[in-house]
Amino acid sequence: MKIVMLGAPGAGKGTQAKMIAAKYGIPHVSTGDIFRANIKNGTELGKEAKSYMDKGALVPDELTVRILLDRVAQDDCAKGYVLDGFPRTIPQAEVLDAELTKLNDKIDFAINVDVPDENIVRRMSGRRSCPSCGATYHIVHIPPKQEGVCDKCGAALVQRDDDKEETVKNRLKVYHEQTQPLIDFYEKKGVLQNVDGTVDSEEVFAAIVKILG
Ligand code: ADP
Ligand code: AMP
After folding, report:
1. Is 47 a catalytic residue?
2. With contact defined as beta carbons under 8 Å apart, do 2 and 105 qualify?
3. Residue 132: CA atoms inside 13 Å, Cβ hemisphere, count?
4. At 172, is the secondary structure helix, strand, or coil?
5. 2-6 and 109-114: which strand pairing?
6. Which residue, 4, 113, 136, 137, could crosslink 197 as a Cys pair with Cβ 3.0–4.6 Å?
7. pTM score, two decimals?
8. Beta partners for 19?
9. Ligand 2 centroid, distance to 111 Cα (angstroms)
10. Mean of the per-residue pLDDT values for the chain?
11. What is the pLDDT of residues 46-68, one digit of tens each?
12. For 142, which DSSP code?
């Protein structure tokens, strides 16, 4: 099963993708997580990606597509995957589509997690993530058991550099200009599924499970 998560930054794509990955036994592939791991490890790729991420801009397609295709070519992706944060532009979606077509394959579901802009800034200013295991929380909606500490591995939670209000506003603008057109792209392919992302994360997940079966 190959799934693409669509939605604005902060809509809950990562939260849902992790739950899907656990339930269906497929890897969660997040280009944002791959970039952040590279930044943490001080790689050349990380340095280049950071210059775009800090501004709330997109990392160039060529670089992003290359790392994504490398990742999905790994053995653990053979039976499927859930893509979170990729594709983010029409050219990215077209390359993915062409690569899958070569393999006689396709995306089975594009799940659009729908959350209006008004909710997004609040979501992202409250987001905290674990730099060690990647778990994500929200200080009000999905709080860890102990404030500032990851439930899963005990590391200290951090706020992402690009979750500052000004950067979030730019990310939303970029989303509307470059990523939202993907909703139409996948609708035309007959694989688009919309879910209401404003409800509790367990309710969002129940709606997704109904779709995936
Ligand atoms: P994305 O991957 O789309 O950028 P995240 O999954 O990281 O978004 O979610 C953004 C923030 O909103 C996080 O702090 C997360 O804990 C919180 N969140 C996710 N889903 C919900 C929900 N259904 N209701 C309220 N908060 C949520
Ligand atoms: P995310 O973790 O998905 O919110 O992504 C964080 C940041 O990483 C984005 O704001 C972009 O700068 C960059 N990024 C992640 N995925 C992509 C992508 N598919 N195309 C371009 N840039 C990306």
Report:
1. no
2. yes
3. 9
4. helix
5. parallel
6. 113
7. 0.96
8. none
9. 18
10. 96
11. 999 999 999 999 999 999 999 99
12. B
